[in-house]
Design a protein that fits this description.
The chain is an alpha+beta fold. Among the domains are: 605-712, no CATH class; 728-770. CHCR repeats lie at residues 508-652.
Length: 771
């Protein structure tokens, strides 16, 4: 029976062809156009049937078994001669002759049965027990003989032939493969040789038996059986499965590129002779024919490769392959593969990895992102996907973001606050999140993280007063930033103490830099109950400009005395706006002697001030400095009176008063027999000071005398000059020097110009120009 199927196995005629043969069909052949099919059988009959017309149908009986047949590739053409070749113990060319009479021509005989025939273009190749021969229909001559290989098994007579193109023949006999090319001779090398010849470009022996051969680009495809292809099982020989292999041929060897075992029904009972390989070169389709199955094989494409990777759960490799060969894919897409990978990871519980891959797999598809987030929500794993959810390009529905934030409010407050800060507030409805946060705070009032988050939300909502109240309560570091950014100074006029308690330095800096918005009086009023804060504030203002807080300088005296004693005396010296008596009372209460001394001096009570220095401090150097500062003789007298019975004080006076008070006064009052430490050094110091003082006086006297004479001389000369100039009008004898100065002749003391001589230079200072 002969069946006609399309390339993927569908019966295109709806039913099988008629039973034109009574026994096994040995071979079929189809012309190049696919219009006619020829078949032969052991019943001796050859049948040619048209698939679309019956005009050229033939049904011939040769009265002997016909083993092979090949129809002319151009059989479908008008006037082609309707040729075909049959093979039994001869190779016979059949054609229509004169008046459509059947004509036969024996092309070859005498070498046993012809087992395989292939006709391509003008060449016919056939195989018998001795080898393969090629016949040229153009020259009507045989052009080559290729001997068969030597097989270890005598029963392997099957030979596979296939024309790769009009000139290239692939042949395999048992374990020998050859590739032959028909070439044209450029010159006649010898008389009687055909114009064409065959060159074997590759020939090698395989480790297996070849059952069929076909081309695949520059490689070859073979159906093969192992040489030890049968095992003894259960007392009988059982064959192994055949293989489909792709080989890269070379001259003497080959390289195996792939090898796939083929599952065929009943392969245990088949041998190498039961398999055959055919192909459609243009579509890279290969047909493995066996007694019970026809298997279609095709070259694996990227879709097949990816399908295999997915079947083996190699998702990452599949994604890489899809990315690199995206333009070749027809069944798979990068996103679909990624979604399968995500589903696999989630099934395995690897939620973090699945969430991380969402960015790469889902891309900018809003719908796919939302669908995937809902999957995470169903399994309570929103916290895994939240860090990767896009906030722009694409922007998801507000409900998605609110769903995640609500999840965090209930389960993870820290994650909620972190996410709230990272996400733009435009992604969700702020009032909904504020409501949810407030409800949670009602049940957990001490939750500072939620309280901070609520403050952030109020800020997003521009309810800055509410946000500020929360941040101040939490002593949050962003309080001052919030105040400055949104100009909330009116809102903090009653919260200054709280701000100071949070951060004194930042609070004072802010208050001083914004005194136009929060007055000094208002701040002082707020801080009066917190003297330490008030002191810091007023001290900073005083450092910036003492005039700004002059009305509070009296208060500052007590503040400095209480909180910053070292700054009190410099403050007392710098300011003129505090009440002296009140300041004195503060210092007396706290027994601040240096400050009392300064205040007494400022109040004019210098004697009492000196008394404090000597009695309370016992510091002679300070007492001397005080007397030098005031420079009043009475103070020196009091100091001498106080010190005269105190050797250490006497020593200090001897060393320091020599330039202010006559030391003889002090020395005369020292009691005889008083032991004064380092007296000699003190006396030497007095003498040195006295000598220095005398030297300075003498120097000053000399300078004074010289300056007096010089000024006198200049005055006299100036007066004379005026008289001479006045007399020039009436004088008959006038002298004019070369320097052009003119004098009365009687007034010239010498031959030099008096004026130029005074200046000690000048041209023509000697000699007269004219008289």
């Amino acid at each position: 029976m002969i069946y006609i199927l399309d390339h993927i196995g569908n019966n295109i005629r709806g039913q099988e062809m008629a039973a034109v043969h009574t026994t096994t069909v040995n071979q079929i052949s189809i012309d190049d156009n696919g219009d006619h099919i020829a078949s032969c059988s052991d019943d001796g009959r050859v049948v040619i049937s048209g698939l679309y017309t019956r005009d050229n149908d033939q049904n011939l009986n040769f009265d002997r078994p016909v083993k092979a047949i090949a129809i002319d590739p151009s059989f479908y053409k008008h006037g082609s001669g309707k040729q075909f070749v049959t093979g039994d113990d001869k190779l016979i060319l059949n054609e229509k002759g004169f008046l459509n009479r059947h004509k036969t021509i024996i092309l070859h005989q005498g070498e046993g049965p012809v087992r395989e025939i292939k006709w391509r273009g003008s060449f016919i190749a056939w195989a018998n027990d001795s080898g393969v021969k090629i016949y040229d229909m153009t020259s009507r001559s045989r052009i080559t003989f290729i001997a068969k290989g030597h097989s270890e098994r005598a029963d392997l007579y099957h030979c596979s032939l296939y024309w790769k193109d009009d000139r290239t023949l692939l042949l395999a006999w048992a374990d020998t493969v050859k590739i032959c090319i028909v070439k044209d001779r450029t010159t006649q090398d010898a008389r009687g040789l055909p114009s064409r010849y065959v060159e074997i470009v590759a020939m090698f022996t395989t480790d297996f038996y070849v059952c069929g051969i076909a081309p695949l680009e520059n490689n070859i495809v073979v159906v093969s059986c192992e040489k030890d292809g049968q095992n003894m099982e259960g007392g009988r020989l059982v064959s192994k499965r055949p293989h489909l292999q792709i080989l890269e041929p070379h001259m003497d060897t080959y390289e195996e590129l792939s090898n796939d075992a083929i599952s065929i029904r009943g392969f245990e009972e088949y041998s190498c002779n039961h398999y055959q390989l055919e192909c459609i070169t243009e579509e890279n389709l290969f047909y493995i024919v066996s007694p019970k199955d026809i298997i279609v094989a095709k070259q694996r494409n990227q879709d097949d490769h990816i399908a295999w990777l997915l079947d083996h759960e190699m998702y990452e490799e599949a994604m890489v392959a899809a990315k690199q060969n995206e333009h070749e894919l027809k069944k798979h897409t990068y996103q679909d593969i990624g979604r399968q990978y995500l589903d696999s990871l989630m099934d395995e519980g690897d939620y973090e990895e699945a969430a991380r891959l969402c960015v790469k797999i889902l891309g900018k598809s809003k719908e796919k992102w939302e669908e995937e987030v809902l999957k995470f929500h169903k399994i309570n794993q929103l916290k895994a996907v939240a860090p990767y959810i896009p906030t722009q390009d694409p922007v998801l529905s507000p409900a998605i973001y609110e769903m995640i934030l609500n999840e965090f409010i209930q389960c993870d407050c820290e994650k909620f606050l972190k996410t709230l800060k990272e996400w733009p507030p435009t992604l969700y409805k702020i009032e909904n999140i504020i409501t949810a946060t407030s409800e949670k705070l009602d049940r957990d009032r001490d939750n500072k993280i939620l309280l901070q988050a609520l403050g952030e939300l109020y800020g997003y909502e521009r309810s800055f007063d509410k946000a500020l109240a929360i941040f101040i309560r939490l002593k949050h570091k962003d309080v001052f930033t919030l105040i400055h950014k949104h100009n909330l100074f009116n809102s903090i006029s009653d919260k200054i103490v709280q701000l100071m308690e949070f951060d004194k330095e930042q609070a004072v800096t802010m208050l001083i830099n914004n005194m136009d918005k929060i007055s000094i009086d208002k701040v002082v009023q707020q801080l009066e109950k917190k003297p330490s804060f008030l002191h810091i504030y007023l001290d900073k203002i005083f450092q910036k400009d003492p005039q700004l807080s002059h009305k509070y300088h009296g208060k500052q005296v007590s503040l400095y005395a209480q909180f910053d004693r070292p700054k009190l005396l410099p403050f007392l010296r710098s300011s003129n706006y505090y009440p002296l008596q009140e300041a004195m009372e503060v210092c007396e209460i706290r027994q601040l002697i240096p400050e009392q001394v300064f205040l007494l001096g400022r109040m004019g009570n210098v004697k009492q001030a000196l008394h404090l220095i000597t009695d309370q401090l016992g510091d002679v150097d300070r007492a001397i400095d005080f007397c030098k500062e005031k420079n009043e003789p009475e103070l020196w007298e009091d100091l001498i009176e106080f010190s005269i019975d105190k050797p250490s004080f006497v020593k200090g006076l001897l060393q320091n008063i020599g330039t202010h008070v006559d030391p003889i006064i002090l020395i005369n009052r020292i009691k005889l027999g008083m032991e004064i430490p380092d007296l000699r050094d003190a006396l030497v110091k007095i003498l040195q000071d006295y000598h220095l003082q005398m030297s300075l006086r003498e120097g000053c006297r000399r300078i004074l005398v010289a300056d007096s004479f010089h000024l006198m001389e200049r005055m006299v000369r100036t007066q004379k000059k005026g008289i001479c100039i006045e007399n020039l009008r009436y004088a008959s004898n006038v002298a004019v020097f070369y320097c052009r100065h003119a004098f009365h002749e009687d007034c010239i003391p010498s031959e030099s110009c008096p004026i130029c001589s005074t200046q000690r230079r000048g041209p023509g200072s000697k000699g007269m120009f004219a008289k």
